[in-house]
Amino acid sequence: MKPAREAAIGDNGGPPLDAPPSEFDLIKTEIEDLFMEATNWCDGEPIGDQATHDAIERLYDGLHAAGAKAEKLRVKEKEPFDTAIAEIQSRFAPLIADNKSVKGKVTLGKQELSKLLTPWRTKIAAEKAAEAARIAEEAAEATRAATEAIRASSGNLARRESAEELLADAKRLEKTASQSWKAATTGTGLRTVWVATLVDAEAGLDWAYGRDPARFTALVQQMADEACRGGVRAVPGFVVLEEKRAA
């Protein structure tokens, strides 16, 4: 039996201590070092001479280059996953996709079958609702008649007994009406969908702004920024000015 050897550093299954750093580790260290240097310069003190400008420019360019390397590595590392996801999507999309550009067989089939099911289910639901309404009206009339009979039976025991039977019948009819209404409004195979259709753009825009001014303003700002990037130099409601920024 061989004697047990002492556990060595690195025996816990981790990477060997002398393993070279990964590409990610290298770029991470580079960016963090450059960022730390940038924090030393960004202390609120403006540039006072050309030498300082040149030093900060080199740091800026270094960060930019390091960022480009990091982005290239990111794209490289996620490429196998993108390929795998694209392959999965391409297999399943013809079956179950449900978006503006692609409709899978399940989606298309359900949409067309729903066009057949909806009218029939609506017809049956309407018939059940009408029957429930008829029973409810019958129950209400029976209750009114029983109430009137009880009022008229004052001092007459025999008539009171008959009136109480009428009231009991009316209560049973009310219960039946309630059950009929529940049956008419549940398990219909229909779902309620509320659809907003714009018919007055001006009123709609006023409503949208009043509901969420910040969100509305952000959208308008985004549209103005897109217009400026596209070459527009006059945007109603905006002052378009030229600014110079460090590239």
Descriptive report:
- This protein is an all-alpha fold and 247 residues long.
- The chain has three domains: 23-96; 105-185; 199-242.
- The protein is built from six helices and no strands.
- It has helices at 23-41, 50-96, 105-152, 157-185, 201-211, 213-229.
- α5 packs across α6.
- It is elongated, with a radius of gyration of 39 Å.
Q: What would a concise description of this structure say?
A:
By secondary structure, the protein is mainly α. 69% of the residues lie in helices and 0% in strands.
What are the key terms here?
disordered N terminus, mainly alpha, 247 residues
Ends apart, CA distance between termini: 71 Å
Share of β-strand residues:
under 5%
Give the averaged pLDDT, no decimals. Answer: 87
**Shape by Cα distribution:** elongated
Task: Please report the number of helical segments.
Answer: 6
Q: Output the structural class.
A: mainly alpha
| Poorly predicted segments | 1-10
What share of the residues lie within helices? 55-70%
**How many domains in all?**
3
Please state the oligomeric state of the protein chains shown: single chain
Please specify the SSE layout and strand pairing:
Elements (H helix, E strand, L loop, with lengths): L22 H19 L8 H47 L8 H48 L4 H29 L15 H11 L1 H17 L18
Helix pairs in contact: 1-2, 3-4, 5-6
